[in-house]
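Exercise 3.2. Students should predict the tertiary structure of the chain below and write it as structure tokens, then compare their answer with the key that follows.

Predict this chain's 3D structure.
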Amino acid sequence: MGTDLHAPLGQERPAGKRRRLRLSPLFVFSVVSVAAIVGLSAYSMMGEAALKAPEMAAVDVPAETAEAAPATAAPEAAESLRRANPQSGANVERTLTDDGNVVTTYSPRSRAGEGPVIVGTPRIGQDPRLAGTPNEDLLEESPYGQLPVVGEDGLRPMDQYARPWSGARGTRIAIVVGGLGLSQTGTQKAIEDLPAEVTLAFAASGNSLQRWMQVSRRDGHEILIQVPMEPFGAPDANADPATLLTGLPAEENLGRLHEALGKISGYTGIMNYLGGRLLSDPDTLEPLLRDVAQRGLLFLDDGTSAQSTSGTLAKAIELPHGFGDMTLDAQLEKSAILKKLDDLERLALRKGSAIGVASAFDESVEAIRQWVEEAGNRGIEIVGVSALVEDPADH
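Answer key:
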């Protein structure tokens, strides 16, 4: 005879009655909850394995390798896939015609190597988490330090370090503030106060450039390197060993250019500092701009020299090129700079886009900061200068 769990203590359950076990709702709920948690944990473990399985299966491994290698070799196989030059299966010949145009001819050839390859697709901008770190695939060692080059997959530094923009075809303005690196306090103030949409140009002769570059890139700025060039009417230009001069052999000017390019990394191109005389001399300028083009950089002419030949040469050698439409701070007063910015906006509304150039004076920084904050409310998009240059790759 069993004992009735619901009978008073010491009393027996009447004979013939079936024993019943009554569980409290709280106990039932606790058991169900534990079972659910155990089930979800098991499902998660199975789901993770299921997710990994297609990823491993997607790796294209030669049949003979798959037979010999254990299943755990799939991740290593994925890592071994190498990036290839998209033109590795073609002969590329470029011919300079008498009229200055470049004719490019492609013919097929066998690609070197075997097995699968990864071909990178064109992309604009850099992962913000890595913005202060240069892409090692876009650098080459030289006696002047690391210099920018086009990657094996065709990626240009101009594209890698460009500031992304919306892609909308509204009114766009680029503002370039130059002279950074010459004054430590002025450089710090400009980087801290200027909106990230403003492009910063660092003087090649400045100080602590690599540190300032990293801070600027992490803050979202697109940057240029500003290279000194020979102006008109400056007899002491020869005294500066960094200035590009019309009277120097091409090899020496290229050495000076490379020395400037090796000061920092992470820039989309170069901009002249002064340079009226050199920009007007196509024989001196052409090999310099050709080197810039081959390195996947842009050239921004600040627009102060009416005799500049940079635009004509840029078209002949397929160099991404832009002109500054307006100098914003020729009169160093905040109200005057704000007026020039309004003039720049009217020009952009007429043309669709415009580029303004200024220097990192306190008055310029304050005026640009205020104006940029207000311009967005009027439907103006401030973009990195790379978005407004004429790029042969777009045609």
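Discussion points: The longest strand covers residues 172-180. The CA atoms of residues 210 and 264 lie 5 Å apart.
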